[in-house]
Write the structure tokens for this entry.
Amino acid sequence: MGKERLDKILASQNIASRREAGLLIRRGAVLVNGAPVAKADFKVDPELDEITVNGRILNAKKYVYYMMNKPAGVLSAARDSRAKTVVDLIPPGMQRRGLFPAGRLDKDTEGLLLITDDGAFAHRMLAPKSHVFKRYEAVLESPVSEGDAERFEKGLELGDMTCLPAQLRVLQEGPNPLVLVRIREGKFHQVKRMFLAVGNRVQRLKRVQIGALCLDEALAPGEVRELSPKEAELVFEPDGNLYEIH
Ligand code: URA
């Protein structure tokens, strides 16, 4: 975004009108990187400089990108009059107008969710031509059958759609195996429907990666952390080799 006048930034963040912002600045209520600034036309880079108004840090960035470890039981939506949503889980200090989840997870699905106010970013991430791969860990009701991975790879037939090639790898064998699934679409209930198509059932589903961006395992379910725009761009990077990581 580059540098902009301080009074203009305050006005654009609805802190004050341009004229009131000038008064606040002259009164010494506004600090830039900890130092008072006397002039309303002082140039500031909102992405790099810390601005405080009456002691409160102003998040004047144009857009924010949050990573959430979505817990099960919460709706992937901006706001809902009846149910608790992922946006409700964002702490007050990180709330902004216009936040929404970029891509949805089912209510009972956990894991990596991006929440932003940058519509163009979300649009680009979700556009089929961007080829953004997503990885999910799933606990299944039954062992994986021979040939399942091949059927995923060939493109499963789901009745109303044929899936693009997807990858399936068993991480932990057992009566309820833990598997890794890699898909690049994100149709409604897609992973669950893919397993139903091969006679199995998903018991638990967690998204662990979007492009090259991995879920930060230090985030407890329901926790959020801000990503730098550079980190957020990782979703557009190749996701790596399925057989080399995890
Ligand atoms: N596939 C599903 O079935 N559910 C999700 O939440 C995401 C992918």
